[in-house]
Amino acid sequence: MVEKAPQSLQAKLYRRYEHSPQGRALAFYEPSGKYTWRSYAELYEAGLSRAKALSAKGLRPGEVCILIPENDEFSTTNLMAVLILGAIPVLSAPPIVRGHHSNLKAVLRYLLRKTQARMVITSIHLEALLEELPKTHNKVQFIFGEAKLGNDSATADKVCHFPDPGTVVAMQLTSGTTGFPKICVWNHTRVLAALDGMVEGMGTTKNDVFVNWTPLYHDMGLVNNFLFCMVQDIPLVMMSTFEFVKNPVIWLKALTDVGATMTWSPNFGYAIAANWVRDDQLEGVRLDRVRAFWNAAERIHLETIETFHRRFSGHGVSMQALKTNFGMAENVGGATFSDPQGMFAVEHLNADTLFKHGKAMVVQRSDSGPSKTVTAVGVGRPYPGLELKIISRKHRALGDGEVGEVAFVSPSRMLGYLSNAKETKKAIKGELLRTGDLGYQRNGELFWLGRLKERINLNGKKYDPSDFEKALLGVEGLRKGCFAVFGVDDEQAGTQRLIIVAEKRDTSPVPEQTIMRNIAGSINRQLGVKVSEAILLGEGSMTKTSSGKRRHRYYHELYTNGKLEPVAQSRL
Predict the structure, then answer these.
(1) Segment 198-239, tens digit of pLDDT
(2) CA quadruple 14, 202, 330, 86: dihedral, nearest 10
């Protein structure tokens, strides 16, 4: 028996193998509806066998292994193997469409340089796309697909490694909206603190069953689902992210078939399900056993939650089951959670007071015009042991209802950004983790309002790009949810000009000039602001981050550098 450190992630994973090896651990839900449960012993032993093969290939404890995973058996086995071996996994997103050109090569070069990785493991389907990298990085072991792993030759006592809890356990890429991602460094103690805090925050029990379509390379998939369920002895069903986006009813059928009690999705996933699933696809769908649909990773819109509830209430979805959360890679996953037993919080705010003075003044929901109020959805309270603060630009603590930067004093805070002292210094001030997000609190409840760096200043009022989503959703001819909004400084006017970039549906009969005029009209009616320029891009051309966030700053840079390729453009 190998001696185990009491507080490492590896020790937790091994302890489950000792105590409940035959319990249900993992299943993969196929588009056909087929799935087979694997016991934890089967999962762990598959990881152990793979760890032997990786060890034979030269991967050692403490070395970095880059994984380009999909939500499948090959990826989860590799992740378990790297962890069992005591190596450090770094997960990177694959191309959105398999085999198509992407920036994956540039991201991999960046990661190889920053992390000094020893190994890269990915699908056989990416070998042609990445074929030049093994030639230019000949000290790195590249493995494309299971067939390239060969036979294991090490023994179990040589590959099972139980590191000191203060050492690095994993590195996580941020889902930044521009440039290369920063790399968050996590140690064992802080990852386990996050997983323990989430038990309290979500109110989970051993009777729960999770279903997850969010990708493993995002902390929602990796921490809130995979690591959480493996450590806490909760069965997890995984399904393809790509298949969900293509046919979202698969998610609902998986929830039904496996008797799920909890699931996760960014806000856009609930919108996709509510808008794309057809009535004729819902035969047999039963969702009343799901007691928590967690919504996180981007701005949460009340309209989306209400639409999802209306669409599927006849199949058992209650408003009380719709939950909200705020988290980030810098804090190792989820930080605040709405009431596990009750409703999420909602406030209707005076728009002028909010945008102009940064004060969240509660008013009655207005029927006299949408431009007079802003709806803010609460994203919950911190899990026990984590302290929430709202701070000013000068780091002064703000009171209830005052809008500022969201910050935490947290036991699960990252150690810092890898080889990036400048950004680490910005994010960590003593014990305080600055998130770069805007929000306010009321009686301990966090209300998240958007990203600090994406704020748009229009005639003395401050807007978040997500404030424009509702107005754009009603414009015929646009692809729903595919847009970017940003402000461009106008020195002569002394404020910013508002720029809207959006995807046009190729099959839309509405003339392009009419679509652009309707964009301006809808935004003016609903928010009372003037659009300076509308730009239409071709269908399918706009990319999002790995978590589905819109890349407002990225398209701002393209616009500034004259690199957009519009199908139509109009100054208004």
Answers:
(1) 999 999 999 999 999 999 999 999 999 999 999 999 999 999
(2) 0
**Could you tell me whether strands 183-187 and 416-417 are parallel, antiparallel, or unpaired per DSSP bridges?**
antiparallel
HSE-CB of 129 using CA atoms within 13 angstroms: 21
Nearest to 569 by CA among 542, 543, 521, 533: 533
Distance, CA of 283 to chain centre: 30
* Best CA proximity match to 180, nearest among 557, 569, 559: 557
Alpha-carbon span 141 to 118, nearest angstrom: 6
The pTM for the full model equals: 0.85
- For residue range 20-36, what is the model confidence (pLDDT) as tens digits? 999 999 999 999 999 99
Q: Are strands 445-451 and 456-458 parallel, antiparallel or unpaired?
A: unpaired
Give CA–CA dist 388/530, Å, rounded. Answer: 36
Q: What is the DSSP string of 283-326?
A: TT---TT--EEEE-SS---HHHHHHHHHHHGGGT--GGGEEEEE
The distance from CA 338 to its chain's CA centroid, rounded to whole angstroms, is 18
How much of the chain, in percent, has pLDDT values that exceed 90? 69
State whether the Cα torsion 247-253-258-261 is positive or negative: positive
Cβ–Cβ under 8 Å, residues 367 and 182: no
At 349 the three-state DSSP class reads strand
- Alpha-carbon span 444 to 474, nearest angstrom: 35
Of 554, 365, 309, 521, whose CA–CA distance to 451 is shortest?
A: 554
Answer yes or no: are the C-beta atoms of 254 and 41 closer than 8 Å.
no
- C-alpha span between 440 and 429 (Å, rounded): 20
What's the pLDDT score for residue 564? 87
Q: One-letter amino acid identity for 10? A: Q
